[in-house]
TrEMBL record:
Function: Catalyzes the synthesis of bis(monoacylglycero)phosphate (BMP) via transacylation of 2 molecules of lysophosphatidylglycerol (LPG). BMP also known as lysobisphosphatidic acid plays a key role in the formation of intraluminal vesicles and in maintaining intracellular cholesterol homeostasis. Can use only LPG as the exclusive lysophospholipid acyl donor for base exchange and displays BMP synthase activity towards various LPGs (LPG 14:0, LPG 16:0, LPG 18:0, LPG 18:1) with a higher preference for longer chain lengths.
Descriptive protein name: Bis(monoacylglycero)phosphate synthase CLN5
Organism: Geotrypetes seraphini
An annotated Gene Ontology molecular function: palmitoyl-(protein) hydrolase activity
Highest classification ranks of the organism: Eukaryota, Metazoa, Chordata, Craniata, Vertebrata
Gene name of this polypeptide: CLN5
GO CC terms of this entry: lysosomal membrane
Similarity remark: Belongs to the CLN5 family.
Coiled-coil stretches: none
Keyword terms: Glycoprotein, Signal
GO biological process: lysosome organization
């Protein structure tokens, strides 16, 4: 990295510290919608896998008056066996969870990444 680049980055970093501080809101407030968007027919699973759910892996149709809660779920792979050890290496099991307010049923879409 050149000296000029280093000086520029240092100046930006220092000036950012003296800028107006904004209070971070946590958790992020829910974004509510008054409508359901039309599903995109292009969004179809290439590889479906649902060992205990629907054979074709689809998410059931929801009613228009239903409220769906969406959750981000994450845990280290094999946490039940190794605790959070693999989490330190960012080897995580991720999922998106959905809960229907009308039926109380839960659904998940899961995947692994390294």
């Amino acid at each position: 990295m050149s000296l000029a680049t280093w000086l520029l980055l240092t100046a930006v970093f220092i000036s950012a510290g003296f800028g107006e501080k904004q209070q971070q809101v946590w958790p992020v407030p829910y974004k509510h919608f008054d409508y359901r968007p039309t599903p995109d027919p292009f969004c179809q699973a290439l590889y479906t896998f649902c060992p205990t759910g629907y054979p074709d892996g689809h998410i059931p149709l929801m009613k228009d008056d239903d409220t769906i809660e969406v959750f981000r779920l994450q845990a280290p792979v094999w946490e039940f066996k190794y605790g959070d050890l693999l989490g330190h290496f960012k080897i995580m099991h991720d999922a998106i969870g959905f809960r229907s307010s009308l039926t109380g049923e839960n659904y998940t879409a899961e995947w692994e990444y390294i």
